[in-house]
């Protein structure tokens, strides 16, 4: 007989698998609807990182100007937002993903046709920083080969927080520094390294400006390579 926790978890996972196909259908419908509008250039952005590292807050502040005070684990969520890049109107389709291991089989549904990926970690959680290279980079490289990656440090406002320093000191740890973040970005070959705080709004717009530019450049280069291949075949 299952224990209550395991029974609840089993029911949750069964429900998730049951609705995975429905989710994928909704995603495809959303993409078709988005691409039907010719006045926009549409680009797909996927955000990954450990659970509770601030991915959802970052997306909600950018797309809705709303900072959620309560943490609710995300399974999958999509947002659509417009942004001006070099005088051009870009429609970003934003994919929020689950960072928990329970959802690692469903997360790949978000990856097809991605134009840019944000790998996030929280400056107050060194474990989430370590997992950038150990967990998220291998997954992104596997499912999004050749797609530009931006490394994003979230919750930058907590770097100077006394409570955070005290809690980390108890584990003989410190907040992740800017220098460490830049070194990690170089190590993983990230297109850029950025820091932001969804709570204070600091750096949020810059994250998506840089992401949109990287996505546009990636699309152009991809089309150029495809055109060259066609010319060679001819």
Describe what this molecule looks like in 3D.
Its main location: membrane. It is found in: Cell membrane. The chain has one domain: P-loop containing nucleotide triphosphate hydrolases (Rossmann fold), CATH 3.40.50. The model has no long low-confidence stretch (mean pLDDT 84). α3 links the parallel β4 and β5. The chain is an alpha/beta fold and 234 residues long. The longest helix has 32 residues.
Distance between the first and last residues' Cα: 65 Å
CATH architecture: 3-Layer(aba) Sandwich
Measured by DSSP, the beta-strand proportion falls in: 15-25%
Strand order of the largest sheet: 2-3-1-4-5-6
CATH top level class name: Alpha Beta
- How many separate helices? 6
InterPro entries: P-loop_NTPase, Small_GTP-bd, Small_GTPase, Small_GTPase_Rho
Main location: membrane
Subcellular location: Cell membrane
GO cellular component, one term: plasma membrane
